[in-house]
Write a structure and sequence with these properties.
The structure is a homodimer. By secondary structure, the first copy, chain A, is an alpha+beta fold. Helix content of chain A is about 25%, strand content about 30%. In chain A, strands 1, 2, 3, 4, 5, 6 and 7 form a 7-stranded mixed β-sheet that branches. A 3-stranded antiparallel β-sheet of chain A has the order 8-10-9. Chain A starts with 12 loop residues before the first strand and ends in a 5-residue tail after the last strand. Chains A and B meet through strand 1, strand 4, helix 1, strand 5 and strand 6 of A and strand 1, strand 4, helix 1, strand 5 and strand 6 of B.
DNA sequence: ATCAGAAAGTAGCAAAAAGATACTAACTAA
DNA sequence: TTAGTTAGTATCTTTTTGCTACTTTCTGAT
């Protein structure tokens, strides 16, 4: 392909759509914006940016995340590239979706330049209702939701949704939310024990036994 | 993003690079072409096509696969999108990599219009040697190799590398090649037993006990 | 015909992981 | 001091995996 004379092919616009997930009030939430302009004015959409001609995809994703949340250095990964011809009614735009995870304590966001507002949307509610979402963004969200559920089983992705020091009940809750089912406390602890290490801190002030804070062990993955 | 006036952003070329894998002589092989033009003339590269302005990514991938192999209806999936700025020395080209799997018995290929030849390359040999490959294609191949190894463990992706009716020794070999390690026969059979069903056919003519042909059960996944 | 070789296929145990239950521990608030 | 509530642990059962050793069924050479 790259030997082709590419000028015979029309170029197209490439965007990055961002799925910034967090967990708030024991629910999986996603950062969405309210569009100020047509098409889909006043509807919910994923935040996103166009990819600059001198910018890698990862750089565009980082830039977009920072514009929406002010955050740098949060975990993100490329999700999938959506390239239906008519996904944008105005013109051909191919979108590379990126997924980012951030603990709610660090979460921050604000309306962008061309959006009315930004807010956290309950993902399960959104997906199980027939709420309309701009473009093909609902499908993208469903795809990401699925990937999250898969990855929590065989990677440490859930750790990105808690702070660096976390209690096991809190971490377990994150696993349960992503998996969509309750876990046995004892088994959960057996499973993640080799990945974590104790800290000297415990919770206090709650009307029950305090829980210890742990952190992720550096040495394994 | 999609509310932006996109005209302020330069458009770019989008290509699909194809990784057509098969198994030949008990080795994982990949279809590669020899480039006829600069840059990287005479070097090995992945086959690929540019994405047309009225064409989805999947359609472009299907078209590319058919151009290279004459095959329709083979299994393929989107792998990852590579968007480094300088991955093509001439101009900015973002590439969506697609991975296709085909049993060697169906495999077919020929040099394209702008390539000198097409051939099957031993993947492990290529990756463990310091053979130069055009563009960032070696990295893409390494990424795909990894993904194949992962997916064989938790999906039925290996079935796409054997014909519809297959013997268990043959299927096991495919698993072993993708995983890069030997498996115990008895365990392997226990594991895939629920996924397959017997046929009435067995091999013949070999100097040992014949083996039965099976097929994938339709009902599960 | 019989037997050696070779790969297909099966039986069955041991070890490890996952599933599940029931308990004990430590805090606050009344 | 006690009731309520959640943290944390001990222990058993079940399932899966890891492994070995066996039996089966073919060809090809005595």
């Amino acid at each position: 392909m790259e030997g082709y004379d590419s000028s015979q092919y029309e170029k197209l616009s490439l965007a990055v759509d961002l799925l910034v997930f967090t967990i708030e009030d024991d629910r999986l939430k996603l950062l969405m914006v309210e569009r100020s302009e047509d098409p889909f004015a006043k509807m919910s959409a994923l935040p996103g940016v166009f990819v600059g001609i001198k910018e890698t995809l990862d750089e565009a994703a980082e830039r977009g995340i920072e514009e929406e949340t002010g955050l740098k250095d949060i975990y993100f990964e490329q999700l999938y590239t959506f390239g239906e011809v008519d996904r944008d009614p105005r013109m051909r735009i191919v979108s590379v979706a990126y997924m980012a995870l951030v603990p709610i304590e660090k979460m921050n966001y604000h309306a962008g330049e061309r959006t009315l507002s930004a807010r956290l949307v309950d993902v399960e509610d959104l997906l199980s209702s027939d709420t309309k979402v701009a473009f093909d963004h609902k499908r993208i969200i469903a795809y990401a939701r699925q990937r999250l559920a898969n990855k929590v089983e065989y990677t440490g992705i859930a750790f990105h949704l808690v702070e660096e020091e976390f209690t096991l009940p809190k971490l377990q809750k994150v696993y349960e939310i992503l998996l969509g089912k309750p876990l046995y406390k004892a088994n959960f602890r057996k499973k993640i024990a080799p990945l974590i290490e104790e800290t000297d801190f415990i919770t206090s002030g709650e009307a029950h036994r305090p829980s210890r804070f742990y952190r992720l062990k550096k040495t394994e993955e």
